């Protein structure tokens, strides 16, 4: 998988922003769930749009999986749904959040093999992120009440995980030349 410098920089920026948001959320555990819901909705929407744009820009010239587009569409739709239905945010946050984490883990699993096929020796980090994300998503799907009760920890943890994953992708594709 060959990534342009701009795409890699965007990944790095999103990764850093997600990690900073994660730290802020860990520092303020009493933050209102509704405010946290809006932050999550906006980030999901922006991330979804970024994934769609990334796919549209790169799919004809680079080996970009259709899963990237699917991830962007799903994430954007979920972000929009939650953003415009604030009363439903709290009720559906744990389930939709679990779906997002699960789908993100699955896309990273698929993406890790594309990075491996492109010749990167650092593909294992993306594979590990995919396995952890998939397992975390499955756990959240089967225990939504626990997810809801601990969302103050799970959301910043997931943002931290997504940020680290984006930064790992940035570094693991560093040695690959863009076309």
Write up this protein.
By secondary structure, this protein is mainly alpha-helical. It is built from seven helices and no strands. The protein has helices spanning 5-27, 33-58, 66-84, 86-117, 123-142, 144-149, 151-172. Helix 3 runs antiparallel to helix 4. The longest helix is centred in the middle third of the chain and has 32 residues, at 86-117. The protein is globular, with a radius of gyration of 16 Å. The mean pLDDT is 80.
Features:
179 residues; mainly alpha; 7 helices; 83% helix; 0% strand; globular
Topology of this structure?
Layout (H helix, E strand, L loop, with lengths): L4 H23 L5 H26 L7 H19 L1 H32 L5 H20 L1 H6 L1 H22 L7
Helix pairs in contact: 1-7, 2-3, 2-4, 3-4, 4-5, 4-7, 5-7
Gist of the model:
This protein is mainly alpha-helical and 179 residues long. It has helices at 5-27, 33-58, 66-84, 86-117, 123-142, 144-149, 151-172.
What are the segments in which pLDDT stays under 50 over at least 5 consecutive residues?
none
Helix tally equals: 7
Overall mean confidence score, pLDDT: 80
List the secondary-structure elements in sequence, H or E.
HHHHHHH
Helix-strand category = mainly alpha
From the structure provided, what is the oligomeric state, counting identical versus distinct chains? single chain
> If you compute it from the alpha carbons, what radius of gyration comes out, rounded to the nearest whole angstrom?
16 Å
Portion in beta strands? under 5%
